[in-house]
Known about the structure:
Layout (H helix, E strand, L loop, with lengths): L2 E3 L11 E3 L2 H7 L2 E4 L13 H6 L5 E4 L8 H9 L5 E4 L11 H4 L4 E3 L8 H19 L23
Amino acid sequence: MTVLIADPYKKVDVPSLTQVALPDLLATSDFVICLAIANKATENLMNAAAFTTMKPSAYFINLSRGNLVDEAALASALDAKQIAGVALDVGRAQDQMPTPSLARRADVIATPHIAGLTPDAAEHQAFDTVNQVKALLAGRMPEGAANPQAAHRLSRLKRA
């Protein structure tokens, strides 16, 4: 396997890696993994031009931050079959979660972003999830719900 990297700020001298310019990486890679830091310079780094440069058989993977990707351009690239698919654990939805409109697509694999979670944080997150399901099963709105005004189906969850 040939591993290409693009970093305009750092020269990498590792024999197993080949450093190239980002357009070259996008044009030749089968899998493009976005691991850039999020700042003003990288906002929408992956935009319509970037996706157009990629091979139609290539897959895009974002494991960094949601604001690195222009999601409208990503959806358009998927619709136009400019790229084969996407995997991501971040997006522009609340708490950097994958955006639901992208996550529900058949050509997208979306998972929760759990990088950096300590064992205590993971346990806390698990208990939060249990408590949210408990509230839903009791027909109550979970604490901290993002859009409670849109929850129109809670009545079907109430126990008899």
